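Support case: user asked for a sample of complex input and structure output to validate their parser. Sending the pair below.
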Amino acid sequence: ETGVTQTPRHLVMGMTNKKSLKCEQHLGHNAMYWYKQSAKKPLELMFVYSLEERVENNSVPSRFSPECPNSSHLFLHLHTLQPEDSALYLCASSQGGQNTEAFFGQGTRLTVV
Amino acid sequence: SQQGEEDPQALSIQEGENATMNCSYKTSINNLQWYRQNSGRGLVHLILIRSNEREKHSGRLRVTLDTSKKSSSLLITASRAADTASYFCATDPPSNSGYALNFGKGTSLLVTP
């Protein structure tokens, strides 16, 4: 248990559905991240939040919409996804700054049908 | 790309043997980190080595860093079946705000009894 909790662990959704992924950390970290992990690809950084402000957005399609209501919670709102969006979505947190490690949640396995 | 690239992509050894994985990257870094991922789960931080360090140990893990060659290696000694996992290197470049790590595709390690 790393202190970062993601729900749900598994999600199957149709292309017309709207769903949200949730991430929660109680490590006192000030930065939170969403990563996408697809088979045989490096982890892709999607969004970075620092002190609840989005500081990085790596050209992610608008069908993915992040929300960070406070420093402990991070959401990824999903709508009108495509089958190629099926992947493991990982949330992470860190203290920010240099020479700090990232703590990852267990991930949400998303399947778009 | 700043992403680290691990080598080999896959490694199969027997219990008791040593496992060595390599990571190469392209630009200067602030630090390099190694993570482990069990199948379909989150990443777990193993070790961080700073750019001014050349070697670091943690239990059965030994990490080296050669900034002149822009490479790092992870050695797992006396491997166990429980070491079966994917191993990723991640770089934290100095130009970065210090928030987001860049990951490679990983090395898949299989340790057979």
